[in-house]
UniProtKB/TrEMBL annotation:
The chain crosses the membrane at residues 15-33, 45-66, 86-106. Coiled coil: none annotated. This is DUF202 domain-containing protein. Its main location: membrane. It is a multi-pass membrane protein. Pfam families: DUF202. GO terms for cellular component: endomembrane system. It comes from the Bacteria. It comes from Thioclava atlantica. It is found in: Endomembrane system.
Amino acid sequence: MIRNFKDHAANERTFLAWLRTAIAIVGVGLTAAKLTGAKMPAWSDVAMIGAGGVVVALAFIRMRLLRARIDAEEALDEGGTNWPDLVLMALVFALSVLMVIFVLHVD
């Protein structure tokens, strides 16, 4: 049996949830642009795909950092800030705001 299996499994599930979030960001952004028929610049598609890639990269970094913390022998300090979580949440919030702005301005 893997040591700290439950913690590792929870870490993997969270990583997969962030991957689903990245896929949803890219999918909703590209689909909204195509379904509305609005003339969108090519950079907007690249930006959506790039944003999804950034979410995947940050989620991977988060998973690796937490894996190291789970495997650490010493007790963990619960008062510290987990910066990848903050960056991921800020990125998803910013992308959500951008999608709302896009939907409100498409006629």
